Amino acid sequence: MRGLTGDGFIAREGSLDRVRAPFDVVVDSVRRELGAWGGGLHSAYLYGSVPRGTAVAGVSDLDLLIALRREPTDGDRAAARAVEARVDAAFGQVDGVGVLLFSAEVLCSELERYDLGWFVACLCTPLTGLDLGAGLPRYRPDSLLARETNGDLALVLPQWADRLAAGGEAELLALSRIVARRLVRTGFTLVMPRYGGWTSDLAESAEVFGAYYPQWADLMREAARIGRERTADPGALGELVHGLGPWLAGEYAAVHGVKAPRPY
Hints:
This protein has 264 residues and is of the alpha+beta class. It is 53% helix and 10% strand. This is Nucleotidyltransferase domain-containing protein.
């Protein structure tokens, strides 16, 4: 099955060898930027389309996970925002840069074993430092993984609704990518145990979901398109936030349960 090892575990996706021109120079720049954290840096990882080798120049964003030896401070978060802004401004081949900050302790904690731990072990490509994924377990595409990765969709829907109501064009463009990608990935993991495989591709994820829920297939395909291209159309976003989102959250809870709460 696609995305799995021969013995049925989710295969780690992405590799630095798959980073294609013109994104290689962007990755080199990001590696230099990591000096901002000095000895506080444990390790750093790329994830998303760039290390999978599917990024499109001028369309794709660059995603980075930074693991620190301490809990992130306000200064760390300010440094991350500065890195995002500098790299995005310097390289037109990326449409946005996103940096996630966590302590290595949280990433490897028991509470995050089937969420952030899985994310590091399966979706992140080591860029520098000691790979935390080496100490994490292997993962199957089962209901436990589904629940712990996306079983909290209901919590973000009110936040999305507020941003949709108040947002101007720039805010809606940013929101559309967040909403669409989250809904497509949640739709895929809803059916993942039945499908029995793994993919991070948005279009493929929408098609897999649609085979099980044909009544929502067209809207999920539209979400996949928006996740790649973005939109500032409040009507299109409203269909996702007020239509697909609430249904998906309810169906997810009924099928897989609700994700364990986090203290952070």
